[in-house]
């Protein structure tokens, strides 16, 4: 299977499924989040099946989507799902700061792996 097509489908497939359910159910997050969680877990399983490893960023994103999506459904409060992008950005910030001041290697390059080619 073409790796770039697989990456595209596993990256944007869960998002497309979320928007499909979200806009077809009067913008109801309670209906759209469970398919998002299931599609994200399936996408991670597909990546693991074909590549025998899961890159760090999709894994972290999948964990956060599952955790905060579950909290959103359980408490019926969308604020938990809204926190996910903020937490990812804070993690990136801490990685950049830690890599600059406490490490001699490029930690962002390590975290992103082959997703984005970075120079030293």
Please tag this protein with its features:
single chain; 120 residues; mainly alpha; 5 helices
Write a structural description.
There is one protein chain. The protein is an all-alpha fold. The chain has one domain. It has five helices and no strands. Helix 1 runs antiparallel to helix 2. The longest helix has 24 residues. The protein is globular, with a radius of gyration of 16 Å.
Number of beta strands: 0
Radius of gyration: 16 Å
Strand residue percentage: under 5%
Basic shape: globular
Return the string of H and E elements: HHHHH
The assigned structural class equals mainly alpha
Biggest sheet statistics: none
Oligomer: single chain
Low-confidence stretches: none
In helices, the fraction of residues equals: over 70%
Distance between the termini: 31 Å
List the total number of helices.
Answer: 5
**Overall pLDDT, averaged?**
88
- Structurally, the number of domains stands at 1
How would you summarize what this structure contains?
With about 120 residues, the chain is mostly helical.
Protein topology:
Blueprint: H1 3-24, H2 29-51, H3 56-75, H4 79-102, H5 107-112
Helix pairs in contact: 1-2, 2-3, 3-4
